[in-house]
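Tip: read the tokens left to right.
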């Protein structure tokens, strides 16, 4: 992606996600240009779960906006979009690794955590921003082909002995 929000979010991925906790903790709030975590205040050295999910959702929105412009003929396809798509899930994956797989917070997800493992505010509500990722993808999911009732009935009637590909009713 040449510029704009896509390039900015990839820069955040490089500095605030990949350069913190081996890329497996989420996006740290404060990172200095030197690549060192900003320790000037408590919040800058934390990963906020809600903010990290919002960052991942922003990346997905950028990908889908770019795809819409390409389909409308307003833009050329860009290979950087694939990187941004992967970046969104890489960013969110760090929260899974730290929050669920390693720390086992499950439904008591805290507001944030530090590299040391210290956390703050268990049972925080901002992690619900994971649904922003779902919202970003919803139009794409809704555009997938579905099976109408007549086609489903024909499929069920001819299922036995049929060599056709199976499909699932959504």
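Filled-in amino acids:
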């Amino acid at each position: 992606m040449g510029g704009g929000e896509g390039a900015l979010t990839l820069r955040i991925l490089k500095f605030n996600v990949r350069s913190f906790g081996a890329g497996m903790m989420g996006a740290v709030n404060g990172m200095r240009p030197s690549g060192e975590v900003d320790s000037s205040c408590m919040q800058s050295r934390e990963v906020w779960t809600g903010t990290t999910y919002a960052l991942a959702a922003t990346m997905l929105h950028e990908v889908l906006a770019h795809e819409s412009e390409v389909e409308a003929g307003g833009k050329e396809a860009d290979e950087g979009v694939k990187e941004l798509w992967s970046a969104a899930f890489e960013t969110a994956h760090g929260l899974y690794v730290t929050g669920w797989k390693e720390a086992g917070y499950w439904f008591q997800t805290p507001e944030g955590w530090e590299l040391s493992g210290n956390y703050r505010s268990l049972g925080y509500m901002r992690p619900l921003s994971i649904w922003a990722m779902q919202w970003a993808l919803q139009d794409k999911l809704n555009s997938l082909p579905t099976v109408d009732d007549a086609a489903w009935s024909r499929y069920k009637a001819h299922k036995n002995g049929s060599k056709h590909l199976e499909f699932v009713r959504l």
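The mean pLDDT is 85. The beta strands are 46-48, 112-114, 119-120.
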